């Protein structure tokens, strides 16, 4: 049963459908509340929404996924529906996210970064257990391929501009 009702959808300050826009908006929201932008590496997102008055956020994807955060060597599972309440530097009442510890999947219900910043992020379970990791492990760095393509496009545009300027400076005389 879905936690997201039509009533919640209608009260949403922001509501989006489609994978690309939902990925952008989820990263933006995480950054806006002071959390690392790579906390929710969801795929095939169907819809996402945000109720600004309460801080309620939801993301729905086509199927559950598992993601390994390589820097810390942890496997995390994201259900088809992830919900939470966000506030500055914190996610509370999180649902749909589990982390693998040894051989057991453990439900996470809270994520927060210290204020003032210490470079650490803490994950809590409903039983009060917690783990702390470096924030940098959850930051998405720019893809070198995208940066290379952007640099090539800029270089091509600059070369085209230079050729046009050179052509304009050269005069042709008829004899």
Please provide a written account of the structure.
By secondary structure, the protein is an alpha+beta fold. It has two domains: 133 residues, no CATH class; 29 residues. 26% of the residues lie in helices and 38% in strands. It is built from three helices and ten strands; from the N terminus they run H-E-H-E-E-E-E-E-E-E-E-E-H. Strands 1, 2, 3, 4, 5, 6, 7, 8, 9 and 10 form a ten-stranded antiparallel sheet that branches. A hairpin with a 2-residue loop joins strand 6 and strand 7. The longest helix is centred in the last third of the chain and has 26 residues. The radius of gyration is 22 Å and the shape is globular. About 13% of the residues have low confidence. InterPro entries: At5g01610-like, DUF538. It holds the Pfam family DUF538.
Features:
about 180 residues; alpha+beta; 2 domains; 3 helices; about 25% helix; globular; At5g01610-like; DUF538
Q: In sequence order, what are the helices and strands, one letter per element?
A: HEHEEEEEEEEEH
Q: Based on CA inertia axes, which overall geometry fits?
A: globular
SSE class: alpha+beta
Strand content: 35-45%
Instruction: Provide the residue-averaged pLDDT.
Output: 84
Helix content: 25-40%
Poorly predicted parts:
146-151, 153-169
Radius of gyration: 22 Å
Number of helices: 3
Q: How would you sum up the major sheet?
A: 10 strands, antiparallel
Q: Quickly count the domains.
A: 2
- Give the N-to-C terminal Cα separation: 85 Å
Give the tally of β-strands: 10
């Amino acid at each position: 049963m879905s936690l997201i009702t039509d009533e919640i959808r209608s009260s949403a300050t922001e509501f989006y459908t489609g994978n690309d826009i939902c990925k952008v908006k989820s990263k933006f929201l995480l950054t806006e509340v002071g959390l690392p932008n790579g906390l929710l590496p969801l795929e095939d997102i169907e819809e996402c929404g945000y109720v600004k008055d309460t801080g309620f956020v939801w993301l729905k994807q086509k199927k559950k996924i598992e993601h390994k955060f390589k820097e810390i060597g942890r496997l995390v599972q994201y259900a088809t529906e992830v919900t939470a309440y966000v506030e500055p530097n914190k996610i509370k009442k999180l649902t749909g996210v589990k982390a693998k510890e040894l051989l057991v999947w453990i439900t996470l219900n809270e994520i927060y970064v210290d204020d003032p910043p210490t470079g650490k992020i803490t994950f809590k379970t409903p039983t009060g257990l917690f783990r702390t990791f470096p924030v940098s492990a959850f930051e998405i760095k720019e893809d070198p391929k995208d940066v290379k393509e952007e640099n090539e496009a800029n270089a091509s545009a600059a070369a085209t501009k230079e050729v046009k300027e050179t052509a304009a400076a050269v005069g042709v005389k008829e004899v």
